[in-house]
Amino acid sequence: MTRPVIEVRDLQKIYGEGEATVHALAGVSLVVERGDYVAIMGSSGSGKSTLMNILGALDVPTHGTYHLDGVDVSKLGDRQLALARNRLIGFIFQSFNLIPRTTAVANVELPLAYAGVKPRERRRRALAALSVVGLDDRAKHEPNQLSGGQQQRVAVARALVTEPALLLADEPTGNLDSRSTEDVLNVFDDLSAAGRTIVIITHEDEVGARAKRLVRLVDGRIVQDTRQSPLNQRPVGAFAGRHTA
């Protein structure tokens, strides 16, 4: 039996005091097994962003426990938390967060540089990650030479390059048009088919429909946790994103 990538029990997050108290999370329990593809959905104020911050080890719960790839996150100091975020989690954000005037391959190399990987090995692994997302032919392009969809795929490659236990995406298609959204979702489909563990925070139904599992939050509680047959699935390795959208 392999250990779960995510195991949270009775997570609560409380802000404020007295009449100003807000229960952003009100007892969330969730297990994500290795290789799962989960979409966490909810309207504004549902608690999904708070849950994302805790899963990403960017915030701590008021109550409850969180084990990430078997590690009790509450027992980690600041330096250990930083290492866990670098090695165990690949973050993908709505705003891409690429460094301007820096090539795609250099952007992808960054987490490896922080981890002390030697330059030649960094370059090899970064080019391999760009190939996975269909952008090896754009390795020397800077962000301003890439479309929004291509920039987000570079960000996905950067998240992949450390071989993390978890890919954690926060509204990854929120800034994209429909064609670029399809390209990025196709990448996630292929990564899921290859056995990657993916958690996407989204409010978009079309994004949630592509996941294997849908978790819905309302008022800080899970009200739905169901398996589903993902829509628009393609054969493994069928990524056809080598166009400019």
Automatic annotation (TrEMBL):
Q: Which GO terms describe its cellular component?
A: membrane protein complex; plasma membrane
Entry's Gene Ontology molecular function annotations: ATP binding; ATP hydrolysis activity; transmembrane transporter activity
Q: Which UniProt keywords apply?
A: ATP-binding, Nucleotide-binding, Transport
The ABC transporter domain sits at 6-244
InterPro entries this protein is in?
Answer: AAA+_ATPase, ABC_transporter-like_ATP-bd, ABC_transporter-like_CS, ABC_transpr_LolD-like, MacB-like_ATP-bd, P-loop_NTPase
Pfam families given in the database record = ABC_tran
Where are the membrane-spanning stretches? none
Query: Gene3D superfamilies in the record, alphabetically?
Result: P-loop containing nucleotide triphosphate hydrolases
Which PANTHER family does the entry link to?
A: ABC TRANSPORTER ABCH.1, IMPORT ATP-BINDING PROTEIN
Protein's name according to its UniProt entry: Macrolide ABC transporter ATP-binding protein
Q: Which organism does this sequence originate in?
A: Paractinoplanes toevensis
